[in-house]
Amino acid sequence: MLSLSLSLSETSPAEWKYISEGGATVVFSYQGPNHPVLTGKVLRLRKTPRAREGNGTPGDPDPHPITDEFTVEFQQKVISPRVYGNTWLQAFSAYHEPSRPLERRTISMIDISRRTGVLALDLIGGVSCAVEVKPKWGFLPNPIHLSQESRPIKTRNCRTCMYARLKQTEGKNAAMHYCPLDLFSGSRKRLEYALKGLWDSWVQSNGSINNLRVFSHGKIVRPNDGLTFQAWSRESFSLPPDAALTSIKSRFIDSLLPEFLHTSLLNHISTLQRSLDSLDCEGFAKLVELTRIESAGLGDNRDVNPLDADSMQPTMEDWVSFVDIFLSPEHQKNSSFKPSNLRYHTLAYLLSATFKDCSLIITLRPRSAHEESSSIKVIDLDFKSVNKIPGWFNLDEKIVKVYANIHAGMRKECIEGNSESEYDSCPTSTRAG
Ligand SMILES: [Zn+2]
């Protein structure tokens, strides 16, 4: 880890530009005068829940916060600067608040109590077109521990498609035309299908789904942006300003397709997701329960929570030794279904969640440029806290319950592997779900 003695408070908030945000962090890119460290970098700041109504204080602090130092070490690829004063961050936050989407502003704010942020390479600034794809879950679960009710559903429908359906029933935006198993298939036809699905969902939601984001010179582009959208399509695909949306869509897909066809990254990501999540959420929940019962039988406190964050939150040493075991031939022995292996499965599940939530950044260059062809980079490899696990158990149950209520004929089937046969016999409307 490279530590730099750098004070961001020497920069003005106006020299930073709001880029985007996820559930935990907000990202700004440096736009100020040429600086040996900051030029070409983005700054990621942690968020905190906004105060509840009628209560003037910020939301309850996370009892087990993930520090930026931990994040930095976890990723081992970013630069951690020595920070800023809180007054600077307060001014910074106030200055950029109007740039944030309203739906984000009402529930969260920049955490001004933090004394660190994370500086990382700016992968999207400076190029006319950068695309962020969040592929999500690229596998169907191991059926061994699935219940009778969930098995027929979970072995035919992927988690991402089912979750999209839940979001839709809750009135939220979701990528209803996209199945990650198509993106991960390695088949040209299905990859094209996945990219079309992402584009259609992006257009229909006016760019508010998180599976696809488009950036032009570091600024987010949305389909309804009018002039910005036109400028982006003209510059990125050499199209006339009045080009039809269908022409832009096919240029977009034609540009991305070779990037996905010629990378082994997706294969690596799905293999990691699958092998780290070997029990499925249900099997993992059963193992937690089994551990609780066993501890109670041994005379321990009956209410003992095997996932208690104080004892289960992994340290950096835990991660290092876990990776050693995971990569060793011994790992079969350490991963059998028994309470003594709960810690192994907890770390494995958390790491799987990191890969299930990562994003890919693809930079597309204008056709006329004589530069090297673009490449895919992985971002958002953030550490997930053990505190999230109970919420994941509940969400898993809810997702399957909602999906089970959908008439069988209306369900879409998600195909694992590179088979294309179903895609020849199945009408497009059914595949799009
Ligand atoms: Zn699917």
UniProtKB/TrEMBL annotation:
Protein keywords: ATP-binding, Kinase, Nucleotide-binding, Transferase
Catalytic activity: 1D-myo-inositol 1,3,4,5,6-pentakisphosphate + ATP = 1D-myo-inositol hexakisphosphate + ADP + H(+)
Pfam families cross-referenced by the UniProt entry: Ins_P5_2-kin
Function (record text): Phosphorylates Ins(1,3,4,5,6)P5 at position 2 to form Ins(1,2,3,4,5,6)P6 (InsP6 or phytate).
GO terms under biological process: inositol phosphate biosynthetic process
Record comment regarding domains: The EXKPK motif is conserved in inositol-pentakisphosphate 2-kinases of both family 1 and 2.
EC number: 2.7.1.158
Molecular functions (GO terms): ATP binding; inositol-1,3,4,5,6-pentakisphosphate 2-kinase activity
GO cellular component: nucleus
Transmembrane domains' residue ranges: none
The protein's name in its UniProt record: Inositol-pentakisphosphate 2-kinase
